[in-house]
Amino acid sequence: MLAMVGLLTGCMNKAPSDQDVEVAIKNLWAGYSWEFSSNFDVASFERLNGWKDGEDYWVEVAYKVKARQPYYEMVADCVEPTAANYNDSAMGQLSMGLSAMMKGFQGTEALDEYAEYLKTNPEPAKMAQARGKYEAQYVNISFLDCVNHFAETSNVFHKGLKAGDELAYSIKFRFKQTEEGWKNL
Description:
Blueprint: H1 2-12, H2 18-30, H3 34-37, E1 40-53, E2 56-67, H4 71-88, H5 90-103, H6 108-120, H7 125-133, H8 136-153, E3 166-178, E4 181-184
Antiparallel strand pairs: 1-2, 2-3, 3-4
Helix pairs in contact: 4-5, 4-7, 4-8, 5-8
């Protein structure tokens, strides 16, 4: 009897609930590349609009994500595994050499900016660990690789990004009513 009531209640919902929308946003964000999914948390959302379209229901949402850590901590998370890759094999060392040749002097600006940052901030723990484990050349080239990777990934990754900074996005979700309730498609 309770299962029947639950099923009927689920079918009677005219629109996806806020909980359905929140699950859709968090699933979307978790599916993004590690740069985003591991460095930002969904902070809030607001339903802007919703409408029925045939069997589907669309929900337009504005949402914010919050940075878990500052920019150079994010870069440091990337440096250690990159340096390990370069250090651990002959192929990695060859890749590092090629990367270093391609970069030439392009990276000196990023290294200089980081040196300026270190004058007023402690070095991220993971960066210090990488410096303790690997030769300076591996760490520096890995640092430049990570900075360039973040810059190519999105303009949200910049040296001024601080823990707690919020970024705003908007999206439209499509839902379909199922026996188990609204499911995001």
